[in-house]
Amino acid sequence: MEKMVQRVPIGKLSEFPERLGKTVNVGSKEIAVFKLGSGKIHAIENSCPHKGGVLAEGMVSGEHVFCPMHDWKISVIDGNVQEPDEGCVQTFKVEIENDQVYVLV
Amino acid sequence: MPKQKIVLIGNGMAGIRAIEEILKRKPDAFDITVFGTEPYPNYNRIQLSKVLQGDTDVQDITLNEWQWYEDNNIRLYPGETVIEIDKKNQFVLTDKDRKEPYDKLIIATGSNPFMLPLPGADKEGVTAFRDIKDCEMMMDYSKKYKKAAVIGGGLLGLEAARGLLNLGMEVDVIHIADYLMERQLDRDAGNLLKQELEKQGMNFLLEKQTVEITGRNHVTGLRFKDGSKIKADLVVMAVGIKPNVALAKEHEIPVNRGIVVNDHMETEVPNIYAVGECAEHRQMVYGLVAPLYEQGQALAKHICDQADEGYKGSVLSTQLKVSGVDVFSTGKILDDESTKAIKMYDDWRGIYQKVLVEEGKITGAVLFGDTKDGNKLLSLIKKGADVEEYLESGQTEESGVDLVASMSDDELICGCNGVSKGAIVEAINNQGLTTVEQVKGCTNASRSCGTCKSLVSDLLECTLGDEYSADQKETICSCTTLSRDEVIEEIKEKGLTHVREVMNVLGWKTEEGCSKCKPAINYYLGMINPSEYEDERESRFVNERLHANIQNNGTYSVVPRMYGGVTNSNDLRKIADVADKYEVGMIKVTGGQRIDLLGVKKEDLPNIWADLDMPSGHAYAKSVRTVKTCVGENFCRFGTQDSIGMGIDIEKKFEGLYTPHKVKMGVSACPRNCAEGGIKDVGVLGLDGAWEVHVGGNGGTDLRQAELLFKVKTQEEVLEMVGAFLQYYRESANYLERTSAWVERVGIEHVREVLSDKETRDELNERMDEALAAVQEPWSEAVKNETLLKELYEKVNVPTGSN
């Protein structure tokens, strides 16, 4: 079966809180959406590869989020877990049009 | 061309180290198979005593994870023992009938513990101290039995004894010589060591020769040559090790004490090598870890056809891994006619140092109590330095740096993990490291016994020059080189008011800090300027941002405030209704006498708070948490004071106050201390006509008994003292430092001295009042703030197919 990429509207850019994450459920998929200090939006899978921690609640520093469970450091840009831990989370493309934020799933 | 086949017998530190050295040089040239009798991947055997002493876990001492073998295409057969070597046809056979051909065979079978052939040595409850299995057996025994006897007062025996003491056993150490560690120490140092260990609770039986282990099936005691006896439920034999050469001997590979090897670690049989504790090189068999790395390198170079002078032997040093005891020795230990000694003996402070000199050269040293010269001496001996160099280096302050500067790049800094000077310098330069901790994280240097920490520090200073501050002040985190005190001083001096401003102005290395420094700076800013600072929610850990405690499945828990642990039917009814309405997963009574609603969904939090209409219990925050109280004089027949009233007053006054770490309190009305004030950050104890204020207790990670700060007469005085104490803690402790650690660090006498001054107390309480005035009740605040509700508590839900 061919998989379609959907472009899903998830809210207004101006309404996302800065340097924080937001949990976005698209169907059964749970996505963590972050608005960084730079104003850029990034979306990754909302589950830490370590023990499934809710990444959307993590502390955001620069381009990284710290998992609230055991402090794993994960890049919100490429989804890679930072040393000394290992692993990665799925990333999702984000598009912005006239203040409307879309995520591609 | 097919790959050459390497077979390694022995999956321990020496063999795997040799394989690592080979892989470093030619990663894809060989097909490697490893056989190991123990069912574990390669682990750090020297750390076993730390496992036994409770400083680390078995899991944490693994050196090479299973994944490492896989990543390097190494076939590992754990729990499988090689029983035959066919030298002519070049293959080995195992106890599981596996036949494995080799082009190169490495024997790294290590040592076996030497078990005294005493009658009764085969009884249950007799063990060696060599591997994980032994370690686990001792830990297991300590839970069931009381009395342990360790035969052997050497390095291993004493480390085992210390471990058993930590596990709660009574320990007798039996030693045949008339002083401890006679192989590594002289009599003076041995006696000092004995005194120190006796203070720690060990009992010594010196000049005792065990002749029998008594008991029916299970050991019950020991009998000595002089006829005397002791009782024991556990007997640990730690009298030494002997090279495990049985396999080599059986197959006629020449063996003396160990398997005889040349400078390239080759045995006398073609294509067979031996390395580590089972090998004998120039009549020396080494029973310590440091030489393994040099041996592994020599072997790897030879197998990889790289030119090399080969292994030249090692000068060893030993260090006892027992907390609170600093012992170091190297080279020659005992005086004789050919030696002259430089000695220093300070009986009062328990310091002893002896440096032996032969024909003008340093040949050995024994240090007790102060071992910081150890590495320097070891290095001087290795390079055959004249004694003048040591005497002169003592005068100059930078001797440590000069010493590492003079080392060659391939000289080992960390003997435990085989990290050379070159590797550390490279890591410092390439990865911009500035602290010992970072070097440890990147290179493993100083990760095991920690002896080389000072060398690593010197090396940092030598490499970085002025950028490095040698006293290794504790920086807030790796984002900055500044300590907590320096950051606070700068904030005050420059009038900084935002977390990001602090990071910018003070030259943070990261753009927006990390999960350590952000909340710390946020706290410091609020502490310094409580009335004006606007708390930054993005610098708060999720619990303090959402005012609820995140659980492992992403749900939250809600703990309403119940002053002094006292509730009423109305509040209980509300709690019960909320629990039903929002289908909470569990209702539990907490350790701090509160009710916890667990398994709450984030989006339900504001509604629950609104329904409850009770203040937050702050059970999620680094703040004043609970004041636990006993029943007190109102009901209890022993109560001498109104502990509940006192507890409620304290809690009402300080509720919601942010502190460096959580603060738990307790108030009891008699010395029975039912509110357990002895393990609280603040424990108030009511006596007939007086109150005692105890501080710095902890019942958690860092179990510690609270110490008496003051004894006062009235409830007002209690509030004054608690206020001054908490404010002084808020202003002086590091963020995330509990009162237990802080009081331990600065000393109760210091705290008492500061707080004894009425004027200081008044000033502290004034600043405390200012901080308390800024406290807001977070739940009611969240419930009425639309933006907060939307930004923090709402999720975005998009059903699929909506596009």
Automatic annotation (TrEMBL), chain A:
Gene Ontology MF terms in the entry: nitrite reductase (NADH) activity
CDD domains the record matches: Rieske_NirD_small_Bacillus (cd03530)
UniProt EC number: 1.7.1.15
UniProt-recorded name of the protein: Nitrite reductase (NADH) small subunit
InterPro entries with a match to the protein in the record: Rieske-like_NirD, Rieske_2Fe-2S, Rieske_2Fe-2S_sf
Superkingdom classification of source: Bacteria
Keyword Metal-binding: yes
Enzyme class: oxidoreductase
Keyword Metal-binding belongs to the record: yes
Span of domain Rieske: 8-103
Gene3D superfamilies: Rieske [2Fe-2S] iron-sulphur domain
Alphabetized Pfam families for the sequence: Rieske (PF00355)
Keywords: 2Fe-2S, Iron, Iron-sulfur, Metal-binding, Nitrate assimilation, Oxidoreductase
Ranges annotated as spanning the membrane: none
Stored PROSITE patterns: RIESKE
TrEMBL record, chain B:
Lineage of the species this protein comes from: Bacteria, Bacillati, Bacillota, Bacilli, Bacillales
Stretches of the chain forming a coiled coil according to its record: none
Cofactors required: siroheme; [2Fe-2S] cluster; [4Fe-4S] cluster; FAD
Nitrite/sulphite reductase 4Fe-4S domain location: 621-758
Keyword Repeat found: no
GO terms of molecular function: nitrite reductase (NADH) activity
SUPFAM superfamilies named in the record: FAD/NAD(P)-binding domain, Nitrite and sulphite reductase 4Fe-4S domain-like, Nitrite/Sulfite reductase N-terminal domain-like
Boundaries of every NADH-rubredoxin oxidoreductase C-terminal domain copy: 317-384
Pathways involved: Nitrogen metabolism; nitrate reduction (assimilation)
EC class name: oxidoreductase
Protein name: Nitrite reductase (NADH) large subunit
Residues in BFD-like [2Fe-2S]-binding domain copies: 412-461, 476-525
Domain Nitrite/Sulfite reductase ferredoxin-like residue range list: 551-613
Residue span, FAD/NAD(P)-binding domain: 5-283
NCBIfam families: nitri_red_nirB
UniProt keywords, alphabetically: 2Fe-2S, 4Fe-4S, FAD, Flavoprotein, Heme, Iron, Iron-sulfur, Metal-binding, Nitrate assimilation, Oxidoreductase
Cytoplasm is among the record's keywords: no
Similarity remark: Belongs to the nitrite and sulfite reductase 4Fe-4S domain family.
Originating organism: Aquibacillus albus
Enzyme nomenclature, EC number: 1.7.1.15
Gene3D superfamilies listed in its UniProt record: 3.30.390.30, 3.90.480.20, BFD-like [2Fe-2S]-binding domain (1.10.10.1100), FAD/NAD(P)-binding domain (3.50.50.60), Sulfite Reductase Hemoprotein, domain 1 (3.30.413.10)
